[in-house]
Protein backbone atom coordinates (compact mmCIF):
# COMPACT_ATOMS: atom_id res chain seq x y z
CA UNK A 1 0.00 0.00 0.00
CA UNK A 2 1.32 3.45 -0.89
CA UNK A 3 2.49 5.44 2.12
CA UNK A 4 1.58 9.08 2.73
CA UNK A 5 5.28 9.91 2.37
CA UNK A 6 5.20 8.98 -1.32
CA UNK A 7 2.68 11.69 -2.11
CA UNK A 8 3.95 14.70 -4.04
CA UNK A 9 5.81 17.05 -1.72
CA UNK A 10 4.92 20.16 -3.71
CA UNK A 11 3.39 22.61 -1.26
CA UNK A 12 3.48 20.14 1.64
CA UNK A 13 2.98 22.90 4.15
CA UNK A 14 0.34 24.62 2.08
CA UNK A 15 -2.94 22.74 2.00
CA UNK A 16 -4.05 22.26 -1.60
CA UNK A 17 -7.70 22.11 -2.63
CA UNK A 18 -7.60 19.18 -5.04
CA UNK A 19 -10.69 17.64 -3.44
CA UNK A 20 -12.77 20.54 -4.77
CA UNK A 21 -11.69 19.82 -8.33
CA UNK A 22 -12.65 16.16 -7.84
CA UNK A 23 -16.04 17.33 -6.57
CA UNK A 24 -16.38 19.63 -9.60
CA UNK A 25 -15.82 16.67 -11.94
CA UNK A 26 -18.33 14.56 -10.00
CA UNK A 27 -20.82 17.44 -10.28
CA UNK A 28 -20.33 17.75 -14.06
CA UNK A 29 -20.68 14.02 -14.66
CA UNK A 30 -23.76 13.83 -12.42
CA UNK A 31 -25.30 16.76 -14.29
CA UNK A 32 -24.95 14.82 -17.54
CA UNK A 33 -26.22 11.69 -15.80
CA UNK A 34 -29.49 13.37 -14.85
CA UNK A 35 -29.79 15.17 -18.18
CA UNK A 36 -29.65 11.82 -19.98
CA UNK A 37 -32.28 10.42 -17.63
CA UNK A 38 -34.53 13.40 -18.36
CA UNK A 39 -34.30 13.34 -22.17
CA UNK A 40 -37.60 11.46 -22.42
CA UNK A 41 -39.42 13.97 -20.19
CA UNK A 42 -38.59 16.68 -22.74
CA UNK A 43 -39.09 14.67 -25.92
CA UNK A 44 -42.02 12.69 -24.48
CA UNK A 45 -44.91 14.96 -25.56
CA UNK A 46 -43.63 15.12 -29.14
CA UNK A 47 -42.99 11.36 -29.24
CA UNK A 48 -46.40 10.64 -27.73
CA UNK A 49 -48.14 12.66 -30.42
CA UNK A 50 -46.00 11.31 -33.27
CA UNK A 51 -46.24 7.65 -32.23
CA UNK A 52 -49.82 7.73 -30.90
CA UNK A 53 -49.01 6.54 -27.36
CA UNK A 54 -51.40 6.73 -24.41
CA UNK A 55 -50.47 7.76 -20.83
CA UNK A 56 -49.96 4.20 -19.59
CA UNK A 57 -47.60 3.38 -22.48
CA UNK A 58 -45.70 6.57 -21.72
CA UNK A 59 -45.54 5.58 -18.06
CA UNK A 60 -43.85 2.30 -19.00
CA UNK A 61 -41.41 4.08 -21.33
CA UNK A 62 -40.58 6.54 -18.54
CA UNK A 63 -39.95 3.61 -16.17
CA UNK A 64 -37.73 1.61 -18.57
CA UNK A 65 -34.60 3.39 -17.33
CA UNK A 66 -35.36 2.61 -13.70
CA UNK A 67 -36.03 -1.12 -14.19
CA UNK A 68 -32.48 -1.71 -15.38
CA UNK A 69 -31.00 0.96 -13.10
CA UNK A 70 -32.37 -0.87 -10.07
CA UNK A 71 -31.24 -4.29 -11.30
CA UNK A 72 -27.75 -2.92 -11.90
CA UNK A 73 -27.21 -1.44 -8.45
CA UNK A 74 -25.83 -4.47 -6.60
CA UNK A 75 -23.57 -5.60 -9.47
CA UNK A 76 -22.48 -1.99 -9.95
CA UNK A 77 -21.64 -1.55 -6.27
CA UNK A 78 -19.67 -4.80 -6.24
CA UNK A 79 -17.72 -3.74 -9.36
CA UNK A 80 -16.78 -0.47 -7.63
CA UNK A 81 -15.54 -2.33 -4.54
CA UNK A 82 -13.67 -4.88 -6.65
CA UNK A 83 -12.08 -2.78 -9.42
CA UNK A 84 -12.09 0.77 -8.04
CA UNK A 85 -14.14 3.83 -8.79
CA UNK A 86 -12.09 5.43 -11.57
CA UNK A 87 -12.22 2.62 -14.12
CA UNK A 88 -15.74 1.40 -13.42
CA UNK A 89 -17.14 4.93 -13.51
CA UNK A 90 -15.41 5.71 -16.83
CA UNK A 91 -16.95 2.63 -18.44
CA UNK A 92 -20.30 3.61 -16.96
CA UNK A 93 -20.20 7.09 -18.55
CA UNK A 94 -19.11 5.73 -21.93
CA UNK A 95 -21.77 3.02 -22.05
CA UNK A 96 -24.73 5.13 -20.95
CA UNK A 97 -23.71 7.80 -23.47
CA UNK A 98 -23.43 5.23 -26.27
CA UNK A 99 -26.95 3.92 -25.63
CA UNK A 100 -28.31 7.45 -25.34
CA UNK A 101 -26.91 8.17 -28.79
CA UNK A 102 -28.29 4.85 -30.06
CA UNK A 103 -31.79 5.87 -28.89
CA UNK A 104 -31.65 8.63 -31.50
CA UNK A 105 -30.60 6.13 -34.16
CA UNK A 106 -33.48 3.71 -33.45
CA UNK A 107 -35.83 6.68 -33.67
CA UNK A 108 -35.43 6.45 -37.45
CA UNK A 109 -36.87 2.90 -37.53
CA UNK A 110 -40.42 2.26 -38.76
CA UNK A 111 -43.04 3.44 -36.25
CA UNK A 112 -44.03 -0.12 -35.31
CA UNK A 113 -40.45 -0.88 -34.22
CA UNK A 114 -39.49 2.40 -32.56
CA UNK A 115 -41.19 1.85 -29.20
CA UNK A 116 -39.65 -1.57 -28.52
CA UNK A 117 -36.17 -0.53 -29.66
CA UNK A 118 -36.36 2.73 -27.72
CA UNK A 119 -37.47 0.84 -24.60
CA UNK A 120 -34.39 -1.42 -24.90
CA UNK A 121 -32.08 1.58 -25.27
CA UNK A 122 -33.53 3.16 -22.16
CA UNK A 123 -33.06 -0.12 -20.30
CA UNK A 124 -29.38 -0.18 -21.27
CA UNK A 125 -28.90 3.47 -20.28
CA UNK A 126 -30.30 2.60 -16.86
CA UNK A 127 -28.09 -0.45 -16.43
CA UNK A 128 -24.98 1.47 -17.49
CA UNK A 129 -25.70 4.34 -15.08
CA UNK A 130 -26.05 2.00 -12.08
CA UNK A 131 -22.50 2.49 -10.66
CA UNK A 132 -22.66 6.30 -10.85
CA UNK A 133 -24.15 7.33 -7.50
CA UNK A 134 -22.48 4.61 -5.42
CA UNK A 135 -19.29 5.81 -7.13
CA UNK A 136 -20.07 9.38 -6.12
CA UNK A 137 -20.56 8.25 -2.54
CA UNK A 138 -17.22 6.40 -2.55
CA UNK A 139 -15.40 9.44 -3.95
CA UNK A 140 -16.90 11.75 -1.31
CA UNK A 141 -16.08 9.27 1.48
CA UNK A 142 -12.48 9.05 0.24
CA UNK A 143 -11.86 12.72 -0.56
CA UNK A 144 -13.75 14.63 2.17
CA UNK A 145 -13.61 14.76 5.98
CA UNK A 146 -16.85 14.20 7.87
CA UNK A 147 -17.45 17.92 8.52
CA UNK A 148 -17.41 18.67 4.75
CA UNK A 149 -19.17 15.54 3.57
CA UNK A 150 -22.73 16.87 3.82
CA UNK A 151 -21.93 19.86 1.63
CA UNK A 152 -19.95 17.75 -0.86
CA UNK A 153 -22.77 15.20 -1.13
CA UNK A 154 -25.38 17.95 -1.43
CA UNK A 155 -23.39 19.58 -4.23
CA UNK A 156 -23.12 16.46 -6.37
CA UNK A 157 -26.73 15.56 -5.61
CA UNK A 158 -27.86 19.08 -6.59
CA UNK A 159 -26.53 18.36 -10.08
CA UNK A 160 -29.98 16.91 -10.79
CA UNK A 161 -31.40 20.42 -10.53
CA UNK A 162 -28.56 22.02 -12.44
CA UNK A 163 -29.16 19.47 -15.20
CA UNK A 164 -32.72 20.73 -15.49
CA UNK A 165 -31.60 24.38 -15.49
CA UNK A 166 -28.89 23.86 -18.09
CA UNK A 167 -30.18 21.09 -20.34
CA UNK A 168 -33.99 21.30 -20.21
CA UNK A 169 -34.18 24.57 -22.20
CA UNK A 170 -31.47 23.27 -24.57
CA UNK A 171 -33.24 19.95 -25.15
CA UNK A 172 -36.59 21.72 -25.56
CA UNK A 173 -35.05 24.00 -28.21
CA UNK A 174 -33.44 21.06 -30.04
CA UNK A 175 -36.74 19.16 -29.98
CA UNK A 176 -38.61 22.21 -31.30
CA UNK A 177 -36.06 23.12 -33.97
CA UNK A 178 -34.55 19.80 -35.06
CA UNK A 179 -36.85 17.02 -33.83
CA UNK A 180 -36.77 14.75 -30.80
CA UNK A 181 -34.18 12.33 -32.21
CA UNK A 182 -31.51 15.05 -32.33
CA UNK A 183 -31.61 15.40 -28.54
CA UNK A 184 -30.20 11.89 -28.15
CA UNK A 185 -27.41 12.48 -30.66
CA UNK A 186 -26.24 15.63 -28.86
CA UNK A 187 -26.41 14.18 -25.33
CA UNK A 188 -24.72 10.91 -26.28
CA UNK A 189 -21.84 12.71 -28.00
CA UNK A 190 -21.23 14.93 -24.96
CA UNK A 191 -21.04 11.91 -22.69
CA UNK A 192 -18.50 10.02 -24.78
CA UNK A 193 -16.19 13.04 -24.67
CA UNK A 194 -16.64 13.34 -20.90
CA UNK A 195 -15.75 9.67 -20.33
CA UNK A 196 -12.33 10.24 -21.91
CA UNK A 197 -11.74 13.35 -19.76
CA UNK A 198 -12.66 11.44 -16.59
CA UNK A 199 -9.94 8.84 -17.16
CA UNK A 200 -7.38 11.59 -17.59
CA UNK A 201 -8.11 13.73 -14.50
CA UNK A 202 -9.54 11.46 -11.76
CA UNK A 203 -7.22 9.72 -9.26
CA UNK A 204 -7.51 8.32 -5.74
CA UNK A 205 -6.30 10.67 -2.94
CA UNK A 206 -2.94 9.01 -2.28
CA UNK A 207 -2.12 8.75 -5.99
CA UNK A 208 -3.16 12.22 -7.13
CA UNK A 209 -0.16 14.07 -8.63
CA UNK A 210 -1.27 17.50 -7.36
CA UNK A 211 -2.36 16.82 -3.78
CA UNK A 212 -0.14 18.13 -0.97
CA UNK A 213 0.69 16.15 2.15
CA UNK A 214 -1.13 18.81 4.18
CA UNK A 215 -4.39 18.26 2.32
CA UNK A 216 -4.08 14.49 2.49
CA UNK A 217 -3.46 14.60 6.25
CA UNK A 218 -6.34 17.05 6.72
CA UNK A 219 -8.73 14.69 4.91
CA UNK A 220 -7.50 11.64 6.81
CA UNK A 221 -7.60 13.32 10.25
CA UNK A 222 -11.15 14.46 9.57
CA UNK A 223 -12.43 10.97 8.85
CA UNK A 224 -11.88 10.75 5.08
CA UNK A 225 -11.29 7.18 3.90
CA UNK A 226 -8.18 8.02 1.85
CA UNK A 227 -7.23 4.34 1.44
CA UNK A 228 -10.69 3.25 0.29
CA UNK A 229 -9.51 2.46 -3.25
CA UNK A 230 -6.36 0.61 -2.21
CA UNK A 231 -5.45 -2.87 -1.10
CA UNK A 232 -7.95 -5.03 0.71
CA UNK A 233 -10.57 -2.29 0.95
CA UNK A 234 -10.90 -2.13 -2.84
CA UNK A 235 -10.10 -5.76 -3.73
CA UNK A 236 -11.80 -7.72 -0.97
CA UNK A 237 -14.41 -10.28 -2.05
CA UNK A 238 -17.97 -9.77 -0.92
CA UNK A 239 -18.21 -10.79 2.71
CA UNK A 240 -20.60 -13.60 3.41
CA UNK A 241 -23.72 -12.29 5.03
CA UNK A 242 -22.81 -8.61 4.44
CA UNK A 243 -25.97 -7.94 2.45
CA UNK A 244 -28.07 -9.66 5.10
CA UNK A 245 -26.52 -7.44 7.79
CA UNK A 246 -27.39 -4.31 5.82
CA UNK A 247 -31.01 -5.39 5.36
CA UNK A 248 -31.38 -6.51 8.98
CA UNK A 249 -30.20 -3.18 10.40
CA UNK A 250 -33.03 -0.83 11.43
CA UNK A 251 -31.03 2.34 10.78
CA UNK A 252 -30.07 1.25 7.26
CA UNK A 253 -33.60 0.12 6.38
CA UNK A 254 -35.04 3.43 7.58
CA UNK A 255 -32.54 5.27 5.38
CA UNK A 256 -33.28 3.00 2.41
CA UNK A 257 -37.08 3.38 2.60
CA UNK A 258 -36.72 7.11 3.23
CA UNK A 259 -34.70 7.40 0.03
CA UNK A 260 -37.43 5.61 -1.91
CA UNK A 261 -39.92 8.24 -0.71
CA UNK A 262 -37.60 11.16 -1.49
CA UNK A 263 -36.89 9.77 -4.95
CA UNK A 264 -40.61 9.61 -5.67
CA UNK A 265 -40.45 13.42 -5.74
CA UNK A 266 -37.31 13.30 -7.90
CA UNK A 267 -38.90 11.04 -10.50
CA UNK A 268 -42.07 13.08 -10.66
CA UNK A 269 -40.00 16.10 -11.63
CA UNK A 270 -37.80 14.05 -14.00
CA UNK A 271 -40.67 12.37 -15.84
CA UNK A 272 -44.19 13.77 -15.60
CA UNK A 273 -43.59 17.38 -14.55
CA UNK A 274 -42.98 18.83 -18.06
CA UNK A 275 -45.96 16.79 -19.30
CA UNK A 276 -48.02 18.24 -16.42
CA UNK A 277 -47.15 21.76 -17.59
CA UNK A 278 -48.12 20.96 -21.19
CA UNK A 279 -51.26 18.88 -20.65
CA UNK A 280 -52.66 20.22 -17.35
CA UNK A 281 -51.50 23.84 -17.57
CA UNK A 282 -51.68 24.40 -21.32
CA UNK A 283 -48.06 25.42 -21.98
CA UNK A 284 -46.24 24.78 -25.24
CA UNK A 285 -43.37 22.27 -25.19
CA UNK A 286 -40.89 25.13 -25.68
CA UNK A 287 -42.38 27.17 -22.83
CA UNK A 288 -42.61 24.11 -20.58
CA UNK A 289 -38.93 23.42 -21.20
CA UNK A 290 -37.94 26.87 -20.02
CA UNK A 291 -40.47 27.02 -17.17
CA UNK A 292 -39.27 23.64 -15.85
CA UNK A 293 -35.90 25.23 -15.18
CA UNK A 294 -37.35 27.66 -12.59
CA UNK A 295 -38.26 25.05 -9.95
CA UNK A 296 -34.93 23.40 -10.76
CA UNK A 297 -33.06 26.60 -9.86
CA UNK A 298 -34.89 26.58 -6.53
CA UNK A 299 -34.01 22.90 -6.08
CA UNK A 300 -30.36 23.58 -6.81
CA UNK A 301 -30.22 26.37 -4.23
CA UNK A 302 -32.04 24.21 -1.69
CA UNK A 303 -29.77 21.25 -2.41
CA UNK A 304 -26.59 23.17 -1.71
CA UNK A 305 -28.13 24.98 1.27
CA UNK A 306 -29.22 21.70 2.87
CA UNK A 307 -25.65 20.41 2.85
CA UNK A 308 -24.21 23.70 4.12
CA UNK A 309 -26.74 23.82 6.98
CA UNK A 310 -26.06 20.20 7.90
CA UNK A 311 -22.26 20.60 7.97
CA UNK A 312 -22.64 23.90 9.84
CA UNK A 313 -24.59 22.11 12.56
CA UNK A 314 -21.81 19.49 12.82
CA UNK A 315 -19.15 22.19 13.19
CA UNK A 316 -21.22 23.90 15.89
CA UNK A 317 -21.07 20.75 17.98
CA UNK A 318 -24.47 19.22 17.24
CA UNK A 319 -24.67 15.47 16.83
CA UNK A 320 -24.41 14.00 13.35
CA UNK A 321 -27.93 12.64 13.83
CA UNK A 322 -29.42 16.08 14.51
CA UNK A 323 -27.34 17.73 11.78
CA UNK A 324 -28.49 15.34 9.05
CA UNK A 325 -32.13 14.86 10.11
CA UNK A 326 -33.04 18.53 10.62
CA UNK A 327 -32.71 19.62 6.95
CA UNK A 328 -34.31 16.38 5.74
CA UNK A 329 -37.44 16.84 7.86
CA UNK A 330 -37.77 20.58 7.15
CA UNK A 331 -37.23 20.07 3.43
CA UNK A 332 -39.78 17.29 3.10
CA UNK A 333 -42.37 19.42 4.91
CA UNK A 334 -41.85 22.17 2.34
CA UNK A 335 -42.20 19.63 -0.49
CA UNK A 336 -45.76 18.79 0.52
CA UNK A 337 -46.76 22.29 -0.64
CA UNK A 338 -47.10 20.94 -4.21
CA UNK A 339 -50.57 19.65 -3.30
CA UNK A 340 -51.74 23.30 -3.15
CA UNK A 341 -51.35 23.40 -6.96
CA UNK A 342 -54.62 21.44 -7.14
CA UNK A 343 -56.42 24.54 -5.87
CA UNK A 344 -54.93 27.34 -8.00
CA UNK A 345 -55.37 28.30 -11.66
CA UNK A 346 -52.61 30.81 -12.41
CA UNK A 347 -49.70 29.29 -14.35
CA UNK A 348 -47.12 31.41 -12.58
CA UNK A 349 -48.56 30.68 -9.14
CA UNK A 350 -48.27 26.97 -9.96
CA UNK A 351 -44.63 27.50 -10.95
CA UNK A 352 -43.98 29.42 -7.70
CA UNK A 353 -45.51 26.65 -5.57
CA UNK A 354 -43.61 23.96 -7.45
CA UNK A 355 -40.44 25.99 -6.96
CA UNK A 356 -41.03 25.99 -3.19
CA UNK A 357 -41.66 22.23 -3.27
CA UNK A 358 -38.53 21.64 -5.32
CA UNK A 359 -36.52 23.89 -3.00
CA UNK A 360 -37.67 21.80 -0.05
CA UNK A 361 -36.85 18.59 -1.86
CA UNK A 362 -33.34 19.96 -2.44
CA UNK A 363 -32.86 20.88 1.22
CA UNK A 364 -33.97 17.43 2.31
CA UNK A 365 -32.01 15.40 -0.23
CA UNK A 366 -29.15 14.45 2.09
CA UNK A 367 -29.44 10.72 1.65
CA UNK A 368 -26.04 10.34 0.01
CA UNK A 369 -24.38 12.27 2.81
CA UNK A 370 -26.02 9.88 5.26
CA UNK A 371 -24.74 6.97 3.16
CA UNK A 372 -21.18 8.30 3.34
CA UNK A 373 -21.61 8.56 7.12
CA UNK A 374 -23.09 5.10 7.70
CA UNK A 375 -21.79 2.64 5.06
CA UNK A 376 -19.41 -0.07 6.32
CA UNK A 377 -15.90 0.68 5.07
CA UNK A 378 -15.41 -2.77 3.56
CA UNK A 379 -18.49 -2.59 1.33
CA UNK A 380 -19.05 1.11 0.69
CA UNK A 381 -19.92 0.42 -2.96
CA UNK A 382 -22.32 -2.42 -2.18
CA UNK A 383 -24.00 -0.42 0.58
CA UNK A 384 -24.48 2.49 -1.80
CA UNK A 385 -25.86 0.05 -4.36
CA UNK A 386 -28.47 -1.26 -1.91
CA UNK A 387 -29.39 2.32 -0.98
CA UNK A 388 -29.76 3.27 -4.64
CA UNK A 389 -31.73 0.09 -5.37
CA UNK A 390 -34.37 1.10 -2.83
CA UNK A 391 -34.27 4.74 -3.90
CA UNK A 392 -34.70 4.05 -7.57
CA UNK A 393 -37.51 1.58 -7.18
CA UNK A 394 -39.36 4.90 -7.15
CA UNK A 395 -38.24 5.36 -10.75
CA UNK A 396 -40.25 2.26 -11.63
CA UNK A 397 -43.33 2.85 -9.51
CA UNK A 398 -43.75 6.63 -9.76
CA UNK A 399 -44.17 7.00 -13.56
CA UNK A 400 -46.42 3.95 -13.78
CA UNK A 401 -48.64 4.85 -10.81
CA UNK A 402 -49.03 8.40 -12.11
CA UNK A 403 -49.80 7.03 -15.58
CA UNK A 404 -52.65 4.93 -14.17
CA UNK A 405 -53.91 7.80 -12.00
CA UNK A 406 -54.01 10.02 -15.09
CA UNK A 407 -55.82 7.43 -17.16
CA UNK A 408 -58.40 6.89 -14.43
CA UNK A 409 -59.02 10.50 -13.42
CA UNK A 410 -57.95 12.55 -16.44
CA UNK A 411 -56.02 15.03 -14.26
CA UNK A 412 -52.88 15.32 -12.16
CA UNK A 413 -54.70 16.08 -8.87
CA UNK A 414 -54.37 12.58 -7.42
CA UNK A 415 -50.79 12.37 -8.70
CA UNK A 416 -49.74 15.44 -6.70
CA UNK A 417 -51.37 14.01 -3.56
CA UNK A 418 -49.51 10.73 -4.12
CA UNK A 419 -46.15 12.51 -4.43
CA UNK A 420 -46.80 14.76 -1.41
CA UNK A 421 -47.74 11.74 0.72
CA UNK A 422 -44.34 10.21 0.01
CA UNK A 423 -42.66 13.33 1.42
CA UNK A 424 -44.57 12.75 4.68
CA UNK A 425 -43.54 9.09 4.73
CA UNK A 426 -39.87 10.11 4.36
CA UNK A 427 -40.25 12.27 7.49
CA UNK A 428 -41.74 9.31 9.35
CA UNK A 429 -38.76 7.11 8.39
CA UNK A 430 -36.12 9.56 9.59
CA UNK A 431 -37.90 10.57 12.79
CA UNK A 432 -39.21 7.19 13.97
CA UNK A 433 -37.18 4.46 12.26
CA UNK A 434 -33.59 5.55 11.56
CA UNK A 435 -32.51 6.41 15.10
CA UNK A 436 -28.88 7.45 15.67
CA UNK A 437 -26.84 8.04 12.51
CA UNK A 438 -23.44 6.30 12.80
CA UNK A 439 -21.14 4.11 10.72
CA UNK A 440 -22.30 0.50 10.65
CA UNK A 441 -19.64 -2.03 11.67
CA UNK A 442 -19.94 -5.41 9.99
CA UNK A 443 -19.90 -8.49 12.22
CA UNK A 444 -17.36 -11.20 11.28
CA UNK A 445 -18.78 -13.93 9.03
TrEMBL record:
Keywords: Cell membrane, Membrane, Transmembrane, Transmembrane helix, Transport. It is found in: Cell membrane. It is a multi-pass membrane protein. The chain crosses the membrane at residues 20-40, 60-81, 88-109, 154-176, 182-202, 253-273, 293-314, 326-344, 350-370, 382-406, 412-433. Residues 22-438 form the Major facilitator superfamily (MFS) profile domain. It comes from the Bacteria. One of its GO terms (cellular component) is plasma membrane. Pfam families: MFS_1. GO terms for molecular function: transmembrane transporter activity. Belongs to the major facilitator superfamily. Phthalate permease family. NCBIfam families: 2A0114. PANTHER family: FI19708P1-RELATED, SOLUTE CARRIER FAMILY 17. This is MFS transporter. It comes from Cystobacter ferrugineus. The lineage of its organism: Bacteria, Pseudomonadati, Myxococcota, Myxococcia, Myxococcales.
